[in-house]
Automatic annotation (TrEMBL):
<dbReference type="Pfam" id="PF01656">
    <property type="entry name" value="CbiA"/>
</dbReference>
<dbReference type="InterPro" id="IPR050678">
    <property type="entry name" value="DNA_Partitioning_ATPase"/>
</dbReference>
<protein>
    <submittedName>
        <fullName>Chromosome partitioning protein ParA</fullName>
    </submittedName>
</protein>
<dbReference type="InterPro" id="IPR027417">
    <property type="entry name" value="P-loop_NTPase"/>
</dbReference>
<feature type="domain" description="CobQ/CobB/MinD/ParA nucleotide binding">
    <location>
        <begin position="7"/>
        <end position="174"/>
    </location>
</feature>
<dbReference type="InterPro" id="IPR002586">
    <property type="entry name" value="CobQ/CobB/MinD/ParA_Nub-bd_dom"/>
</dbReference>
């Protein structure tokens, strides 16, 4: 089976890219898959997280993490991908050479948006990036979802409406709420599903996102990345 390469990106810092990339890598590894996490952000959040995770867990991180930057994101991933079943690439929050290089080799592009106007305003830019990437990577699938959803108010619905309006991206209806467990887990080198005591809502949300993207058995017929 061909390696599934997923890029978590966007042009906004703090939208939750590293949180989502690390949690997806952890869930894929927990499912017994061979996973490479590529840190393509020069802030190296995914690398720092993985180092913490390695020291916090006797069994190690459960996946392999490498840092790549610039055009090497493309060439490095092309070289390493055949050795793994899944590659997850965490990018920085700007339109960089690294992010474009990642987009040129991936199967899927996953973009979290916080439901506030400044974040959603980057949608046009992201939409353009996807269309441009498809000129070299025509099979690229792109997904948008809401991260840090507000517990109340109209902002979630308004953001969802906007995200649904862009034909370049498929809107994933199962987003993540704004929950302390995501930060608490990261601070201990854990995935949110591994945190104890568990936040069941945060865990369910992350599993639903994972299931939407990768778990063919749970949602038959869905247009999935791993299918
Ligand atoms: N769903 C969420 N709920 C609460 N905090 C979150 C959530 N997602 C991310 N965060 C927090 O927001 C901050 C930025 O997240 P991060 O994943 O580093 O974003 P990015 O990689 O896009 O810059 C971190 O402190 C992280 O713990
Ligand atoms: Mg990050």
């Amino acid at each position: 089976m061909e390696t599934v390469i997923t890029v978590v990106g966007g042009t906004k810092g703090g939208s939750g890219k590293s949180t989502v990339a690390t949690n997806l890598a952890i869930l894929l590894a927990a499912a017994g898959l061979d996973v490479l996490l590529v840190d393509a952000d020069d802030q190296e959040t995914a690398t720092d997280f993985t180092n913490l995770r390695e020291s916090a867990r006797p069994g190690g991180a459960g996946y392999t993490c490498v840092a790549l930057t610039g055009p090497a994101v493309r060439t490095g991933v092309q070289r390493l991908a055949p050795k793994y079943q899944h590659v997850v690439i965490d990018t920085g929050g700007r339109d960089t050479v690294s992010q474009r290089a990642a987009l040129s080799v991936c199967s899927a592009y996953l973009v979290p948006f916080a439901p506030r106007s400044f974040d959603v305003w980057t949608l046009d830019k992201v939409s353009d990036l996807v269309e441009e990437a498809r000129t070299v990577n025509p099979d690229l699938r792109a997904f948008a979802f809401i991260n840090k959803a507000d517990p109340r108010g109209n902002e979630n619905a308004e953001a969802a409406e906007l995200l649904r309006s862009r034909p370049a991206l498929t809107f994933i209806p199962t987003g993540l709420g704004s929950r302390k467990a995501f930060g608490a887990a990261a601070a201990s080198g854990l995935g949110v599903t591994e945190l104890r005591p568990q936040d069941p809502k945060a865990s369910d949300e992350m599993r639903a996102l994972y299931g939407y993207l990768f778990d063919i058995s749970k949602t038959p017929g869905r247009d999935q990345v791993g299918a």
